Amino acid sequence: MWQDQRLVWRLRRGKVEALRLIYDQYKLDLLKLAIILTGDLHHAEDVVQDVFLKLAGSYDRISADGNLKNFLITCLVNRIRTLHRDRGRQQAAQFDRPAAERGPASPPEQWAIVNERMQRLSAAMAELPLEQREVVTLRFEGGMGFRQIAGIQKASINTVQGRYRYGMAKLRSLLDGEVET
Amino acid sequence: VNFADKMRRLFDSATVQTRVPTDEAVFEKIRTAFTRTVDGQSAQGEPSSWKFIATRPWAKYAIAAAVLGIIALLPLGYGATKLIKGFISIRQLPAIKPELVEGGTLSPDGKRFAGLTRASELVVIDTATGARRKLAQNCSGRVVWSADGSEIAAIQRDPQGGKHAAIAVSLPTGGMRTLMEDPPYHLQDWSPDGKLMLFRKSLKLGLESVVMIHLESKKETVLVADTGGWPLSARFSPEGDLVAYITRQGDRSTLHLRAVEGTRQVEYADFPGTIVSPQWSPDGAYVVFKGTQTGLERRFTDLWALRVHGHEFVGAPVPVVPDIEQIELSNWARNGQLACRMGFRLGGIFTLPVDLQTGQATGAPRQLVRLGGLPRGFCWSPDGEEIALCQELGLGFLSARTGAKIRDFPVPGIHATGRGLSWSPDGKFIAQACLDPERKGGVFLGTVATGEVRLLVPQEDVASNPTWSPDSQSLAYQYKGDIYVVSIADAQPRRLTSSTKGEGDKSARSFSHPVFAPDGGSVAYIAARGQKSDTVLATTIDGTQTREVFHAKDGQSVNAFDWSPDGRHIVFTPGDKEVWCVATPGGEPFRIADISDLGGEAWAWWPEWSPRGDAVIFAVINEKYKYCVMEDFLPEE
Lengths: 181, 637
Description:
The complex is a heterodimer. By secondary structure, chain A is mainly α. Chain A contains eight helices and one strand; from the N terminus they run ααααβαααα. Chain A has helices at 2-11, 16-38, 41-57, 68-87, 116-125, 130-140, 146-153, 157-175, and one strand spanning 112-114. Chain A is globular, with a radius of gyration of 18 Å. Chain B is mainly beta. In chain B, helix 2 packs antiparallel against helix 4 (57-83). Chain B is globular and about 70 Å long. The model of chain B is unreliable at 44-55 and 71-86 (pLDDT under 50). The interface between A and B is large, with 63 and 74 residues. Strand 1 (112-114) of chain A pairs antiparallel with strand 1 (16-18) of chain B, so a sheet runs across the interface.
């Protein structure tokens, strides 16, 4: 925690190297969260870039004694909600599109490379409503307690726990046979 | 272990990596936004600017738009200046027509292109005028130029079924000489001094090695003992003292650099994906290759360059041309042009409505799903609602009505051979001809409800076209030119046919594409003699009686067929743009679908009659290629 505070302190003074360290430290965590929460790699990449751009654009308003990770996760979750609200759910990618349909050649643009487990996990999570997805993901991946999640979701702990139970029940029906014991 | 623990493990094992080039571009974008914000905060002390903006609200939007515009353009600018050289030249060779098959190469001076036609003729084409000259017949595989461009080497088959040979044809005289008799079939490269050749050597289906052979002494040096089922390539350096080649282990590849004398060997194994098609730059300073990394929804294939100095790799590879998935690298000529074939193999599954009573089409063929290439195998679900489709990592299930993807059926570690798929009529199993992780072939059974996969019939080689009996108790399949039947209960295969290997190709007899008759009493299959396959026979399950179901006339072939659910018709593809139907026994065949409007290179294959009898699905392949040269893409020194 003190390391994060030191980074934020330096960031507030306009130090690019602090931004770099924060970026290197949190990009993968945020990408993973975003992929699971959006179920769409391209949206996830956009969201994480937006979060870092927001950090870059409001660096002087971050509390130096706050929790940087929670700040970034909260930004991420809010951004995904906005995306979700504005665009609705992204249609499932067209199955196995031929290479010819992928448009003209462009510089390397995909940022994230995921493994097969991630594909399975994000596919299963996409079956949950966003609120349940948030709770399950923040619990397992964000390492947050229900109280913290309730704060992010602006909901009661009981509501959050209910969402967790429903989400896990649905995942059990989807994944129990697949998840290795 | 409770479910929460399982989920925790799944979360832990789900990983994300970032592509380094894009990673840097993303951070550059963020850094720029940050420094601009910092600079803007520092400039707040300039009241005139802020007053201007404060009194003119549109100015804020204009500034925001400008900043967003700069941010949006940054990755392109980054790629253009730091990663991708700005002026890659990709130029088409219009004189080289696409009827050449894969394996053509450019002469060292870039003035001629040598390749094979679909009729197996070795031809050389002037890249400026298109003038074509036939040099040899019955050739196959890759064509390789001598270092001075005076000769062209290829593998020539004996049409009478005798031994084949590696030949070299002189360009000035047209004279032919034999470099080696009975070499491995897949020629890869020819050393600049003309003494060595590199080959891919087929040991059996699914097992290949890469070897270097001294043409005089016939001494064979094994570079890769087992390619793992991947078509790996190897290339001599321009000086001829080194060989670059690739090995592959699962989803990772290793690029090797080996001294021809065998004294030194180094490798590069850190590429986060797979590598194919290594090519030496004419000065020997770089090896470029196609590198593929897997994303969530698609793969990314780029051209990468790795510096070579002495007998060592230097540094890490850098991307030099992005998104070259549709480009096949041919060779890098000494004039600096990297020859390639651009285009794609467009595949798809079409559906055709038919009348079960008459076998006639009741509508036009309609594309159900488009694919990136040849379907590796597909079949109907027993209820006719879904279509199972072979994918690289298992099976996919599509809606038979819309083609929309319904779900995946991952089969990790099993390598589909593209040789058939069949769903049991009781809906419980899907049979597939595959290779397992140890590349042992056989007929595998996947349990639809659980995803469990087991090897039913292990074999040395790979079986083809498994098909279920109507009672779901037996399978028929094709193996080494014969038809076998196996009971699920005892897994003991029994051979129904007796193939023969005659003196030459013409008298050889083989059997393929088994299909159970709807009553389950017999298995129908295609009988071929030599290269001609025009007869469908049916043999009773006990093997005692065989009858002719259909014999094509007027030179027509049967390359795949299926029986209607009521057994009154068979639908077949003759190997071109048409789908035909015929009443059995003794009916006159009639055409029910034609895909000529898709283009000259399109062809239809593998018809499957729906369980309800109201539709036939079939695969369609369409190839679109052009030949090009790429120049000036290596990074600045």
